[in-house]
Design goal:
alpha/beta; Rossmann fold; nine-stranded mixed beta sheet; seven-stranded mixed beta sheet; 46% helix; 15% strand; disordered C terminus
Length: 614
């Protein structure tokens, strides 16, 4: 007959009940100077069933069985304290009600909870100490010697797990806080500030560096990584603070340093309750929902509890990908294959599903291609936007959010010009509409389709060279998740007609980006992987801008979202110019289309876009 297996939860309950009985009997024994038989010993045995029943109910109430002994901590001890006190008071009250505590010395009722706390807490802490300081003789000699950067809560968690697991040997910690120099965390000393990393690694024969500062922003991470790179040792890091929330184990979260860590780790604080209240139980449509920004936007929206999400996408493959990503979602989702330039399809979708909020993320975005294909840029970015905006206005949608780009500011290319015209149309349309039309403008997103990050990764994998257009070219960068979270936050702020601009931080040189990606691959720039300069492509700027010179920058209720205020032109004047452009679509003359775009989108310098002059 096979032995009966008892699960861990049952084992914990049985252990705690046994400790309750021992604590009760030990209280009597201690009261009578550890002699036996002691006075009224039969009464002590008679009350044991009551002790068991009361403590079972109290233990369940305070969830003692849920605590993992391996990670026993102050909250667990606090629960034990409460359970012991409440249990003792309950037993006392019941005994008083039924037989006025006759035969029970009062001191026993005082001793019992203290013995119970000890008998419950000591095994838990003992088990944790044993686990934390146990190691395998076979694996320890092969463990890597580790230097931990940081001495905060994340570092404490990491060091504790390293000691327990035995896969690494923690040698020391480095932190720039002078007040904790020479302090110890779990017996591991703080050896100095981060600037000493090279010296400490050489003196202590370090094998790997672990960065445990989740709160570090991009600038701080760049400085830390640059210091660590001087050691030529492998570097791993914990993710940003937004990914460390509610994390109970740090060691499994360690990963290679990524370019996102260096450019965008700052935590975005959102008012999720207000955002959820705003979007919950709404029907929401996302155009371009299969693209890099659109798909992340859809993913964020599904967590906010809309009644229905409609994903409108012209690429069959992208629609398939987003369908696979969200196939397990609990909300109702409709996946629609269609083209925004097909106004009949757009009208059918909005009439059939009646979306209350529209996020318009669909756009062509590749600068050099759109320089060649100005007609397609105009159709998709202007005609497509006009169609979905007009139909949203027609059907009385509650809100319409256009996703724009920093290239729409003083545009020097077809992409920027088409997006600027889309911004203007949305802004003017809102003046006489019940629909709130808003625009959210921001710079490049890391890892998006067509961005330099995937291109550089591919070039590094092929052995180089990495091609950069110019050594002084700079761009703004933000992670896709950060951008989409801020888009959702901005969507609830506007009253109609506003252009919200996301705070992108400081611009970054593309040359620096290329060098860091090479180093993060364990290679040396211009030694293992060359960087070659190809010259600016048609329509490219040396730097991007987020505001026009005549736009007034105003703060909003969120410190990462700004408002760009400026005068607005008339809708009829803009409509006439747009109609002229649409007429030109029939000729397939890209040169004429570029000339017409110049007339509508003046630059600050000479009131004309200088296409193809860079």
């Amino acid at each position: 007959m096979a032995p009966v297996k008892i699960d861990k939860k049952t084992q914990v309950i049985l252990h705690d009940l046994l400790m309750s009985v021992l604590a009760w009997q030990f209280s009597w024994w201690a009261r009578f100077n550890f002699t036996f038989p002691f006075e009224n010993w039969e009464i002590s045995l008679f009350i044991i069933p009551l002790v068991i029943i009361v403590q079972v109910l109290v233990f369940i109430r305070f969830r003692l069985y849920r605590g993992i002994w391996r990670f026993a901590s102050i909250p667990d001890l606090w629960n034990i304290f409460r359970a012991s006190i409440i249990g003792a008071l309950s037993i006392t009250l019941i005994c008083f009600i039924f037989f006025r505590l006759e035969g029970i010395p009062r001191s026993i009722l005082i001793l019992y909870p203290f013995f119970l706390m000890f008998f419950l807490g000591a095994p838990r802490l003992g088990y944790r100490v044993w686990k934390d300081h146990s190691f395998s003789i076979n694996t320890m000699p092969h463990s890597k010697r580790v230097l931990v950067i940081g001495a905060g809560r994340a570092a404490e968690m990491l060091v504790r797990e390293i000691i327990r697991e035995g896969s690494y040997i923690p040698v020391g910690l480095l932190d720039d806080n002078p007040q904790i120099k020479s302090s110890e965390i779990h017996g591991i000393r703080v050896l100095g500030n981060i600037g000493r990393v090279k010296d400490v690694c050489e003196k202590n024969d370090i094998d790997i560096i672990l960065i445990a500062i989740p709160s570090a922003n991009g600038t701080e991470m760049r400085e830390i990584v640059e210091q660590c790179e001087s050691t030529n040792l492998p570097i791993k890091t914990l993710p940003g603070i937004q990914d460390m929330v509610s994390v109970t184990e740090a060691l499994p979260k360690l990963r290679e340093v990524s370019i996102e860590d260096l450019l965008g780790r700052e935590k975005i604080e959102l008012d999720w309750k207000e955002v959820q209240k705003d979007l919950a139980n709404k029907t929401i449509l996302v155009t371009g929902g299969g693209g890099s920004i659109g798909s992340e936007l859809c993913y964020q929206i599904t967590k906010l509890g809309p009644s229905k999400l409609i994903i409108f996408e012209r690429s069959e493959f992208n629609l398939y990908k987003i369908e696979q990503l969200l196939c397990d979602s609990s909300i109702s989702i409709e996946f629609v294959l269609g083209d925004l330039c097909d106004i009949e399809k757009v009208d059918y979708v909005l009439k059939n599903y009646s979306p209350e909020i529209i996020f318009h993320a669909a756009a062509y975005k590749h600068v050099p291609i759109l320089e060649r294909e100005a007609r397609e840029a105009v159709r998709n970015n202007i005609l497509g936007t006009k169609n979905i905006a007009d139909i949203a206005n027609k059907h009385g949608c509650e809100r319409f959010i256009l996703i724009s780009t920093d290239k729409a500011v003083n545009p020097t290319n077809v992409l920027g010009a088409t997006k600027r015209i889309a911004e203007q149309y949305i802004e003017i349309l809102s003046k006489n509409s019940k629909t709130k039309f808003l625009t959210v403008r921001f710079g490049n997103v890391l890892g998006s389709d067509g961005s330099v990050v995937p291109l550089f990764k591919e070039q590094i994998n092929k052995g180089g060279p990495i091609t950069v257009t110019h050594p002084e070219v700079t761009r703004y960068f933000m992670t896709i998740r950060e951008a989409c979270q801020l888009i959702v936050q901005a969507s609830k702020m506007g009253k109609g007609g506003e252009i919200f601009v996301l705070d992108m931080g400081e611009p970054v040189k593309i040359n620096y980006l290329a060098e860091q990606m090479i180093r993060l691959s364990g290679l040396i720039p211009n030694k293992d992987i060359n960087i070659e300069y190809s010259g600016l492509r048609p329509g490219e700027k040396m730097y991007e801008e987020l505001f026009y010179e005549n736009e007034i920058r105003e703060k909003t209720s969120h410190d990462k979202i700004l408002l760009a205020k400026h005068s607005v032109t008339e809708l009829k004047e803009l409509n006439d110019r747009i109609d002229e452009i649409f007429e030109e679509l029939k000729t397939f003359d890209n040169d004429n289309l570029r000339a017409l775009l110049k007339k509508i989108t003046p630059s600050i310098e000479d009131n004309v876009i200088s296409f193809n002059q860079l």
